[in-house]
Amino acid sequence: MLITGENRNNPAPGTALLLAAAPAGKGRLIDAASVLPALAAVPADILAGTSGAAAATVIELADPLDPQTVLTRIRAAAAAPGPLHLYLAGQLHVDRKQRLLHLALARTVPSTLRYTGLPWHWLAGEMKARRPGTTTVVLDLVADAEAWQQVTGGHIGLGDGTRMYGRIAPAPGGRRCVAVPVHLKAVAAIWRSGARPPLPQLHEQAAAQAASEYGQDGALLFGVDAAAVRTPGPLPLPVPVPAGPAAPPPASGTEPPPSDPHPAILAAARAGRHAEAAAAASAQENEALRTHGPGSVQVLHWLEVRADLARLAQDPARSCELWMTAAEVRLGRQQTADDPDVEAAVDRAHHQWEQIRDTGRAMQLAPALVVLRRRVPGRQRGALQLLQRRLEQLHERRTGTLPAAPNP
Q1: What is the DSSP letter of 15?
Q2: Strand ranges (E), 181-321
Q3: CA nearest neighbour of 188 among 3, 66, 340
Q4: What Å distances lie between residue 228 and 167, 211, 270, 367, CA to CA?
Q5: Pairing relationship of beta strands 56-62 and 220-222 according to DSSP bridges
Q6: CB 32 within 8 Å of CB 91
Q7: What is the β-pairing status of strands 118-119 and 56-62?
Q8: 189 in helix, strand or coil?
Q9: How far, in Å, CA of 99 to CA of 215, rounded?
Q10: Per-residue pLDDT tens over the stretch 61-110
Q11: All residues at 6 or more sequence positions from 359 whose CB lies less than 8 Å from its CB, including other chains
Q12: Beta-ladder partners of 142
């Protein structure tokens, strides 16, 4: 699709190419295409890196079959003179004959990788031919054991003139374990919130959020300070607010609009002043309640901020409780059970519940979480079964410590 928004200087249009691919069946290591709905909800000019200053073209390739077709689309996008942003979600393998990296496509199997996968050097060749500084590639990939050796050995470059962000992780272990493109989903969530941080900050926030929710999986990060990612993850950014007419500029002599409270709250939390941060967020939530009413997206946002503040304060029980409330509010707003924001809230509640060390408190929260997980199973296979198994273990632990009942 072509979306125009040219300014008076008429700069060159930008292009965004979204490529999400993974083999069908048991060869799938990542649910690559699951990120496309979230990215598709981001304004085209943001995806293309023009921020409303020029026309923006968005090209989406979901589980394509033929590498020649993919190369043709990449080549056409690379030939455009304006900025190019390429978003890649998928999995990497090495062919058996030439030992070259390939991005798997929908029909790829190990024996046909050379013919059904996209050779990485094809992609690198198209990127290197572009004018330096005009190309940005965002990676969210997993690599099997052989491909991981090449990735960590430095065989993943796309040329000095290409900016690279994102992550490549070793393929998840375990039979039928399928990863999700956590980095790209976090990037989409930040943009959908209305925030527009500089690219390094954007990807640092996304990487920290992914590490917070899924743990350190040994991923190789691009364009991000790995040390910063090991710090507590950032607060969730504002949830999308329904678009409306732009506010008029303030009249001469009037007060400027209030500053964004998020940085001060986050700074307080990171400095260990958790009560101060929680109180500030609660005040913002109460103000949103008075201004916008219960169930509004503004109130919902501050509820989710408080949930993440509880995580930063190492109070997983409170965080779990607040994330469950946020999920229920979203469902009450007629968001569907497979809505990415609903799934994310339930996943976070589940993850925080797993961190609770007080057996009694965990068992107190478990029934509501089980009901919610049945309604929102999420994309992680067996999440409900894992929750129920963990609950059984807690019950056994608790009953096993009780004294035996006296004989009648």
Answers
A1: E
A2: 220-222
A3: 340
A4: 15, 11, 12, 36
A5: unpaired
A6: yes
A7: unpaired
A8: helix
A9: 31
A10: 999 999 999 999 999 999 888 899 999 999 999 998 889 999 999 999 99
A11: 394, 397, 398
A12: 91, 169
